[in-house]
């Protein structure tokens, strides 16, 4: 059933369906309106008698000026010829001026005519385009059509090869009656496919390019097939295809060919018409007789429409091919088909003399997902009260379509339809409206709810409680969705006679079963398919997997998986091999299962007043009255894409190099020197450079760098070593490391051979830090970072801040009337990000994200400034990160008011703590009580055996009191908190003084404490260290680090004397001893270190 020209309307005006000007009736195309000129009757009254007199004198003066040249000619004695010559010049100038004015008037008239013609053409072409397409954004692509025409013959050759070598064997193996199936002729013809327009969607995602191609193909294609066994010939002779093809180029990579894969699909079912030849003969073949021409057409069209996609990988070994072919939905829309009213009457009796009513039912479609309501007999105001749930894959693009029909014994009568872009539901969150039916009369009542996908199980109980109060039929409301990526199987059992099976998979959850395709003649099949299920209660449901031969008679293996297992998995995801039961000993199945909870933002929604009664919904009163289609309520939370917040931090530790080549030469090359090496690193658009080590072919840099990375395939860490010279630095070698390898393993500690040089190797340690949404480990992370911090490196990051800036509202206008062209800058410390500029609007939508490395989350803040292009600051926001540390899952997602009091921004800020698993340091520190006997006592503190990690052989010892727990109560002399450890990579003993507490007060005033450290038995200045002095406090905070360059054997023989002192007075050199701790290191056979 073809849509009528008015079917593309929706309850809210689309970009191409703007309201007409008041002077244009709705059934006429809009015209270009010029500003109305003020009529004479509207002129203000004159200034009075004085003004009239002034006008008369001015007119008289102009006439006198005309006579001035004549008078001057007579006074100077000139002839009449000069006067005539001047008059001729004046008349010529006057004529040229009039010609120019006439040309300008003609040009203006042509421009007005062109505007009217363009407006009329636009009005007509809007009916040809979807409601979400804005005509100015659609560009012609004649150059692309020329390329397609040039490539068309070669595409025909490729299609012939593809059908003969790939499709034909698959068809022959799919049915025993088609074993003699062949393609006898494949010709694409001379008429190529045409692209009528191209629309590029900007601002959707920085990791993909999204195109919409309006394609039209009216071709003379001819494809003939033959089944020799049944002497049957059939084929295709001519085909028409019209529709909007969406092309997605993703993922974008940092290496050639830049684009990893191309995905193609139709958002809506295209118009497809095939001229079959010999179709009747083909359908007479056994096994095909149940098919019909209509069913074949439906199958072909469904293959091209969402959620089906055609994926063409452009790089080998592309990661997550199944996810690209079937990505997670953008969201779920719950459609409540409540009622209709004012429908037209279609039933007639006694040959039309008696008018009856109608028996209405509704068809609800979103892409290939379709639902049919029950029939309400003899009713023009039916009440359905039914609920459907649909998956939304593309926003913008997909539409909700509702068609109402009158049920009749022969052919059902059409009563009307409505269409609505799903983007409007995403923006509103909840829409509860009466929508007018196009092509008929009446309205349909829908309640539309956008359900977001949550990757954690915290809100499951809240979702289940909400669903208990929702009246839903024919199916109960869903609490989650499950996406199963079926990848492959291994070592399936053979059939009788050791024949290879034709395995296929049946996946079932309760009474819903889906089947995979069959892979023929193999016991190691590869399917690479995705399946989606709605879940009512994932705590009690199970996924049943049956691997069978395509005859369904032989079971090759089975698996039952409780879905509750996913609720405890990270990100509600399982990606692994599963052992099959009732199968071979080594038979297993590889699947990736992803669960997402369906969350409805209920901040503006009340629970049903009477559970179980349809239509018992209540909306909170909102300042935005009227239709939510005319004025959609603003969203309460951001809607970032699924990749937001998925960044990792890569910690790059450049340790040392060996056997570098010598580049320095002296005395004209007679004397061979060494090199002054340094390292350059490039990754994810960032560059880093180490310090220069002078005159060393085996340098030790020991520097740490950090960079934010994503899982985009194809990225590489590029490392180059150079010799520093006065003029041009000499090349000492290079190496590369695949980022995918590091992200998959999580840690890499290797010596890498330098390429393009005779000798040399480089020692790198790479660690992936995954942000964790909990602040419990923050103090430990800060302590570990302070210990592994190197002198040459910047301060290490303790957290990753991800910010998604969606939009702003109510920004101040320029000069009170003109909207600004706003952009925003996000900054943390010295790092900043600038968004795009949105022209001429006070409500910009940016939809941009940024990530920042955070070193001190307790003290840093996110600074946001909204500025106008050429108009200065429009507002600012300062968000202390300490607010995120106390928020749920370290995340804030809401509207923030700008500091100027006018304007708000909707943003999501989430913090993730970066916990290192390979630092070689146990992140624990303890407090130690001083002895209460006397100040002269020197308590010995011992520890147990050392703890050494294999990945980073760095030794850290804890100072623990021999007879008191780590959290011992403070003694009369107080406590000191310190950490001492040995850094094997730097060959240094490191001490970190954190703080003191409950120190003793000797006089009236609190002391001015500091901590002195001394390595005994030496008491010289070379081994003495001390902290800064804190004024008048009994609980000083130091957080200072000290180092001693010692070998491990030498450190084992030393004692560390820790004294807490206070200055007596400004003029005195005496120091009051407040307390002392002494640690002693002893070496034993078989131990690196035993105790301090």
UniProtKB/TrEMBL annotation:
<keyword id="KW-0106">Calcium</keyword>
<feature type="region of interest" description="Disordered">
    <location>
        <begin position="1"/>
        <end position="50"/>
    </location>
</feature>
<dbReference type="InterPro" id="IPR051634">
    <property type="entry name" value="Extended_Synaptotagmin"/>
</dbReference>
<keyword id="KW-0597">Phosphoprotein</keyword>
<keyword id="KW-0007">Acetylation</keyword>
<dbReference type="Pfam" id="PF17047">
    <property type="entry name" value="SMP_LBD"/>
</dbReference>
<dbReference type="GO" id="GO:0035091">
    <property type="term" value="F:phosphatidylinositol binding"/>
</dbReference>
<feature type="compositionally biased region" description="Low complexity">
    <location>
        <begin position="926"/>
        <end position="945"/>
    </location>
</feature>
<comment type="function">
    <text>Binds calcium (via the C2 domains) and translocates to sites of contact between the endoplasmic reticulum and the cell membrane in response to increased cytosolic calcium levels. Helps tether the endoplasmic reticulum to the cell membrane and promotes the formation of appositions between the endoplasmic reticulum and the cell membrane. Acts as an inhibitor of ADGRD1 G-protein-coupled receptor activity in absence of cytosolic calcium. Binds glycerophospholipids in a barrel-like domain and may play a role in cellular lipid transport.</text>
</comment>
<dbReference type="GO" id="GO:0005886">
    <property type="term" value="C:plasma membrane"/>
</dbReference>
<dbReference type="GO" id="GO:0008429">
    <property type="term" value="F:phosphatidylethanolamine binding"/>
</dbReference>
<feature type="compositionally biased region" description="Low complexity">
    <location>
        <begin position="1"/>
        <end position="11"/>
    </location>
</feature>
<keyword id="KW-1133">Transmembrane helix</keyword>
<feature type="compositionally biased region" description="Pro residues">
    <location>
        <begin position="12"/>
        <end position="29"/>
    </location>
</feature>
<dbReference type="GO" id="GO:0031210">
    <property type="term" value="F:phosphatidylcholine binding"/>
</dbReference>
<dbReference type="InterPro" id="IPR031468">
    <property type="entry name" value="SMP_LBD"/>
</dbReference>
<dbReference type="GO" id="GO:0005509">
    <property type="term" value="F:calcium ion binding"/>
</dbReference>
<protein>
    <recommendedName>
        <fullName>Extended synaptotagmin-1</fullName>
    </recommendedName>
</protein>
<feature type="region of interest" description="Disordered">
    <location>
        <begin position="925"/>
        <end position="947"/>
    </location>
</feature>
<feature type="domain" description="C2">
    <location>
        <begin position="314"/>
        <end position="435"/>
    </location>
</feature>
<keyword id="KW-0472">Membrane</keyword>
<keyword id="KW-0446">Lipid-binding</keyword>
<keyword id="KW-0445">Lipid transport</keyword>
<dbReference type="InterPro" id="IPR000008">
    <property type="entry name" value="C2_dom"/>
</dbReference>
<feature type="transmembrane region" description="Helical">
    <location>
        <begin position="70"/>
        <end position="93"/>
    </location>
</feature>
<dbReference type="InterPro" id="IPR039010">
    <property type="entry name" value="Synaptotagmin_SMP"/>
</dbReference>
<keyword id="KW-0677">Repeat</keyword>
<keyword id="KW-0256">Endoplasmic reticulum</keyword>
<feature type="domain" description="C2">
    <location>
        <begin position="630"/>
        <end position="752"/>
    </location>
</feature>
<keyword id="KW-0812">Transmembrane</keyword>
<keyword id="KW-0813">Transport</keyword>
<feature type="transmembrane region" description="Helical">
    <location>
        <begin position="247"/>
        <end position="267"/>
    </location>
</feature>
<dbReference type="InterPro" id="IPR037733">
    <property type="entry name" value="Ext_Synaptotagmin_C2A"/>
</dbReference>
<dbReference type="GO" id="GO:0061817">
    <property type="term" value="P:endoplasmic reticulum-plasma membrane tethering"/>
</dbReference>
<dbReference type="Pfam" id="PF00168">
    <property type="entry name" value="C2"/>
</dbReference>
<feature type="domain" description="C2">
    <location>
        <begin position="972"/>
        <end position="1092"/>
    </location>
</feature>
<feature type="domain" description="C2">
    <location>
        <begin position="456"/>
        <end position="582"/>
    </location>
</feature>
<dbReference type="InterPro" id="IPR035892">
    <property type="entry name" value="C2_domain_sf"/>
</dbReference>
<comment type="similarity">
    <text>Belongs to the extended synaptotagmin family.</text>
</comment>
<dbReference type="GO" id="GO:0120014">
    <property type="term" value="F:phospholipid transfer activity"/>
</dbReference>
<keyword id="KW-1003">Cell membrane</keyword>
<keyword id="KW-0479">Metal-binding</keyword>
């Amino acid at each position: 059933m073809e849509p009528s020209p008015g079917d593309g309307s929706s309850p809210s005006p689309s970009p191409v369906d703007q309201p007409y000007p008041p002077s244009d009736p709705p059934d006429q195309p809009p015209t270009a309106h010029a500003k109305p000129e003020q009529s004479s009757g509207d002129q203000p009254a004159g200034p009075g008698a004085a003004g009239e007199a002034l006008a008369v004198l001015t007119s008289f003066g102009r006439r006198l000026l005309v006579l001035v040249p004549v008078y001057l000619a007579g006074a100077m004695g000139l002839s009449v010829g000069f006067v005539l010559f001047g008059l001729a010049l004046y008349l010529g100038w006057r004529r040229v001026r009039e010609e120019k004015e006439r040309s300008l008037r003609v040009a203006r008239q042509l421009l007005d005519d062109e505007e009217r013609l363009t407006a009329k053409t636009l009005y007509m072409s809007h009916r040809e385009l979807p409601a979400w397409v804005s005509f100015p954004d659609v560009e012609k692509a004649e150059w692309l059509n020329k390329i397609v025409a040039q490539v068309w013959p070669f595409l025909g050759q490729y299609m012939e090869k593809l059908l003969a070598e790939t499709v034909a064997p698959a068809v022959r193996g799919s049915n025993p009656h088609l074993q003699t199936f062949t393609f006898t002729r494949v010709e694409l013809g001379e008429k190529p496919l045409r692209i009528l327009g191209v629309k590029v969607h900007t601002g959707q995602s920085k990791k993909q390019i999204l195109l919409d191609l309006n394609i039209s193909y009216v071709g003379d294609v001819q494809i003939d097939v033959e089944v020799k066994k049944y002497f049957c010939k059939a084929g295709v002779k001519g085909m028409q295809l019209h529709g909007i093809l969406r092309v997605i180029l993703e993922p974008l990579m940092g290496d050639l060919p830049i684009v990893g894969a191309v995905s193609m699909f139709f958002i809506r079912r295209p118009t497809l018409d095939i001229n079959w030849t010999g179709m009747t003969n083909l359908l007479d073949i056994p096994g095909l007789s149940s098919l019909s021409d209509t069913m074949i057409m439906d199958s072909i069209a469904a293959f091209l429409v969402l959620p089906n996609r055609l994926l063409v990988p452009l790089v080998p070994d592309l990661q997550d091919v199944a996810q690209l072919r079937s990505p997670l939905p953008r969201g779920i829309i719950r459609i409540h088909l409540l009622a209709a009213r004012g429908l037209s009457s279609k039933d007639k009796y006694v040959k039309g003399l008696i008018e009856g009513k109608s028996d209405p039912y509704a068809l609800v479609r979103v892409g290939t997902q379709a639902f049919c309501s029950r029939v309400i007999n003899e009713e023009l105001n039916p009440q359905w009260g039914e609920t459907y749930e649909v998956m939304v894959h593309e926003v913008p693009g997909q539409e909700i379509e509702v068609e109402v029909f009158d049920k009749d014994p022969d052919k059902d009568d059409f009563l009307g339809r409505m269409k609505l872009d799903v983007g409007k539901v995403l923006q509103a969150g909840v829409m509860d409206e009466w929508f007018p039916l196009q092509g008929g009369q009446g309205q349909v009542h829908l309640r539309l709810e956008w359900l977001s996908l949550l990757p954690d199980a915290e809100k499951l109980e809240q979702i289940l409680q909400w669903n208990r109060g929702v009246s839903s039929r024919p199916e109960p409301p869903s609490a989650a969705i499950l996406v199963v990526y079926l990848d492959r199987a291994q070592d399936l059992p053979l059939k009788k006679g050791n024949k290879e099976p034709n395995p296929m998979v049946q996946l079932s959850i309760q009474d819903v079963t889906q089947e995979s395709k069959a892979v023929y003649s193999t016991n190691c099949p590869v399917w690479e398919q995705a399946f989606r299920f709605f879940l009512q209660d994932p705590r009690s449901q199970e996924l049943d997997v049956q691997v069978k031969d395509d005859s369904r008679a032989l079971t090759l293996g089975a698996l039952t998986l409780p879905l509750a297992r996913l609720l405890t998995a990270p990100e509600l995801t399982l990606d692994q091999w599963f052992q099959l039961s009732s199968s071979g000993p080594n038979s297993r199945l590889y699947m990736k299962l992803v669960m997402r909870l369906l969350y409805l933002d209920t901040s503006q929604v009340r629970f049903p007043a009477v559970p179980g009664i349809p239509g018992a919904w209540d909306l909170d009163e909102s300042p935005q009255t009227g239709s939510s289609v005319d004025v959609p309520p603003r969203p309460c939370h951001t809607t970032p894409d699924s990749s937001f917040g998925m960044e990792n931090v890569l910690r790059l530790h450049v340790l040392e190099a060996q056997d570098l080549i010598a580049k320095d030469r002296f005395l004209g090359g007679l004397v061979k020197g060494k090199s002054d090496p340094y390292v350059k690193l490039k990754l994810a658009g960032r560059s880093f450079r180490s310090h220069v080590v002078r005159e060393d072919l085996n340098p030790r840099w020991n520097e740490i760098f950090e960079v934010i990375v994503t899982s985009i395939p194809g990225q590489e860490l590029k490392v180059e070593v150079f010799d520093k010279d006065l003029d041009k630095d000499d090349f000492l070698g290079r190496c590369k490391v695949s980022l995918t390898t590091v992200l998959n393993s999580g840690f890499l500690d290797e010596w890498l051979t330098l390429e393009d040089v005779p000798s040399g190797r480089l020692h790198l340690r790479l660690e992936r830090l995954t942000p964790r949404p909990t602040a419990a480990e923050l103090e430990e992370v800060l302590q570990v970072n302070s210990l592994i911090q190197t002198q040459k490196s910047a301060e290490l990051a303790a957290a990753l801040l991800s910010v998604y800036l969606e939009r702003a509202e109510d920004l101040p206008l320029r000069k009170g009337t003109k909207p600004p062209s706003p952009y925003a800058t996000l900054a943390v410390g010295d790092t900043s990000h600038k968004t795009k500029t949105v022209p001429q609007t006070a409500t910009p939508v940016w939809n941009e994200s940024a990530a920042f490395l955070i070193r001190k989350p307790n003290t840093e803040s996110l600074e946001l400034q909204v500025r106008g292009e050429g108009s200065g600051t429009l507002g600012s926001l300062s968000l202390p990160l300490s607010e995120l540390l106390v928020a749920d899952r370290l995340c804030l997602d809401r509207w923030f008011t700008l500091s100027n009091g006018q304007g708000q921004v909707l943003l999501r800020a989430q913090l993730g703590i970066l916990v290192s698993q390979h630092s070689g340091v146990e992140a624990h520190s303890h407090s130690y009580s001083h002895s209460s006997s006397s100040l002269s006592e020197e308590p010995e503190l011992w520890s147990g055996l050392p703890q050494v990690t294999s990945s980073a052989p760095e030794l850290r010892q804890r100072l623990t009191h021999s007879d008191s727990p780590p959290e011992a109560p403070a003694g009369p002399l107080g406590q000191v908190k310190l950490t001492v450890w040995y850094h094997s990579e730097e060959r240094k003993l490191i001490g970190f003084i954190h703080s003191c507490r409950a120190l003793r007060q000797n006089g009236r005033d609190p002391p001015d404490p500091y901590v002195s450290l001394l390595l005994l038995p030496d008491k010289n200045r070379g081994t003495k260290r001390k902290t800064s002095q804190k004024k008048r406090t009994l609980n000083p905070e130091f957080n200072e680090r000290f180092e001693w360059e010692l070998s491990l054997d030498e450190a084992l023989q030393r004692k560390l004397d820790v004294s807490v002192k206070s200055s007596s007075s400004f003029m005195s050199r005496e120091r009051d001893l407040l307390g002392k701790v002494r640690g002693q290191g002893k070496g034993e056979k078989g131990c690196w270190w035993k105790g301090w």
